[in-house]
Amino acid sequence: MAEDILELYPDSGRRHALHGLYLEQSLAHADDAGRPFIYSNFIASLDGRIALPGANRDTHQVPPAIANARDWRLFQELAAQADLLITSARYFRQAASQEAQAELPLGSSPEFADLRDWRVARDLSPQPDIAIFSASLDIPQSALDYYRERKLFLVTGAAADPAKLAQLTADSDLKVITCGPQAAVDATHLREQLAGLGYRRIYAIAGPSVLHTLAAGGALDRLYHTTAHCLLGGTEFDTFIWGNELQPAVNLPLQAMYLDPLAPDGAGQTLAIYGS
Q1: Would you say the pTM of this structure is higher than 0.85?
Q2: Residues 6+ apart with CB under 8 A from 108
């Protein structure tokens, strides 16, 4: 592919190919830091929308105006580097009702064969393992069955419903990670717990509540944020973090920024990397 990504910061004027732009970033950082590296990724419009109501208005989905294959490629590159994906119970409920927008990465389509080969060449497992954040424990067994070839973890709080927890673990191979005294996850010690399980590169692909949990618990190292250059409006929408005000604010200094003029069509998008 032509080198059509323009670097804006820190080395303004350099050009890059889309393929490989994000590849190997978390590998290098985790090795340098010597501890688990936790990163996340979102695409939003200029007015901060990551999702709007879908056709039935019961679920929110990434709007077609900002969703694009070029950003999706970079999403997959970040997944290719991960030992573990963090997702939510909501994803599995949507999958069970056939409302999920895609399978959990790494994607199985031919366009991502190079990324699957990339993992094999580095002696990584064929697919990242999965950690599911949930307080409600409302996770359909049928959706879990699709991922039985991966290690599955349930991350919840100590006050989660014991009967539901017993049923879930009896019906599946879920291993439980307990974080905090409430039903909701407290991520304060999540990094240490994942390190004890051998995980080094953790990619959070859940929604705004999970991102808030990670940020509030000091468990977010880097945020990859694509801004599509369009305005969506709407009064019912999701932004990329949701929860109580963070006190103190979580500082994520800019590390790099790129311009992709080719998508979305007629708008373009900036690709920013914040954090460590």
Answers
A1: yes
A2: none
